[in-house]
């Protein structure tokens, strides 16, 4: 029995066992007792997750994959007493799931070989649920993985970089070639790990921070005094040297400082 990759779901099944093990080993297993794998497909990563201490839940939208997983990973073959001991298979869409309810507000790490077409949305949902997600690891299109991990001063540094790094320490782990997938994608993939910062609360209004970052990068070639003019900045604030810079030049901490300035001095 096998599963046919479905283009509309962005499925590219990983076939290299060593890479699957390396992705699973990206988890530190610190600070949580649950792991959620998104889009397990045919379970090449799942079996290595099941060798670890935390309980594993897999969330799969494709019914054919769900049926395959239930056939390949029967409880009696896992040396488990019940499904609640170690392993749980759920059919559904991660983007529509309430993680707080699903895991009863317990800490859960997220991992997966993420579908390229929704990978950015998966990251943003993890950020929204950061109180319950201390760790996040997995495979993205290389371009997206680099963007998440990139520091200021780079052309690929942007909204995703700043909003992720405001709450998580990001590490780019390794690159994966197209040849280890079935069917092979047209681009390289990249594996990253996000570990939630010890203090992940912002010293500024969160909604304003998100709005400042997104507005600044929507016109990334302009200086901030031009791209942020919708905030009705006071004349004195516009003269602050930070507003003569472009958004990709600002670190996460400087975006926090910029948000504080806007909150305190806007008209």
UniProtKB/TrEMBL annotation:
Superkingdom of source: Bacteria
- Which keywords annotate this record? Cytoplasm, Methyltransferase, RNA-binding, rRNA processing, S-adenosyl-L-methionine, Transferase
Asked if RNA-binding is a keyword of the record, the answer is: yes
Instruction: State where it is primarily located.
Output: cytoplasm
Which subcellular locations apply to this protein? Cytoplasm
Q: Which HAMAP family match?
A: 16SrRNA_methyltr_A
The name this protein carries in UniProt is: Ribosomal RNA small subunit methyltransferase A
Q: Which organism is it from?
A: Polaribacter dokdonensis DSW-5
Q: Which gene encodes it?
A: rsmA
């Amino acid at each position: 029995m096998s599963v046919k990759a479905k283009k509309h779901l962005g499925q590219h099944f990983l076939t290299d066992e060593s890479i699957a093990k390396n992705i699973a080993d990206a988890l530190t297993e610190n600070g949580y007792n649950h792991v959620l794998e998104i889009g397990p497909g045919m379970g090449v990563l799942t079996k290595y997750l099941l060798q670890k201490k935390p309980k594993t839940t897999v969330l799969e939208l494709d019914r054919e994959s769900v049926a395959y997983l239930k056939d390949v990973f029967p409880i009696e073959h896992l040396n488990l007493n019940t499904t609640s001991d170690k392993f749980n298979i759920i059919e559904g869409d991660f983007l529509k799931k309430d993680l707080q309810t699903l895991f009863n507000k317990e800490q859960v790490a997220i991992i997966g070989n993420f579908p390229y077409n929704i990978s950015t949305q998966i990251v943003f949902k993890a950020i929204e649920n950061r109180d319950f997600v201390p760790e996040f690891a997995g495979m993205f299109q290389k371009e997206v993985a680099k963007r998440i991990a990139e520091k200021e001063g780079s052309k690929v540094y942007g909204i995703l970089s700043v909003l992720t790094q405001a709450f998580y320490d990001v590490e780019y782990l390794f690159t994966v070639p197209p040849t280890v997938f079935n069917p092979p994608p047209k681009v390289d993939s990249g594996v990253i790990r996000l570990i939630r910062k010890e203090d992940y609360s912002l010293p500024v209004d969160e909604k304003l921070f998100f709005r400042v970052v997104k507005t600044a990068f929507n016109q990334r070639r302009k200086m901030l005094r031009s791209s942020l003019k919708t905030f009705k900045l006071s004349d004195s604030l516009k003269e602050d040297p930070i507003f003569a810079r472009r958004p990709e030049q600002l670190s996460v901490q400087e975006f926090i400082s910029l948000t504080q300035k806007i909150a305190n001095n806007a008209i």
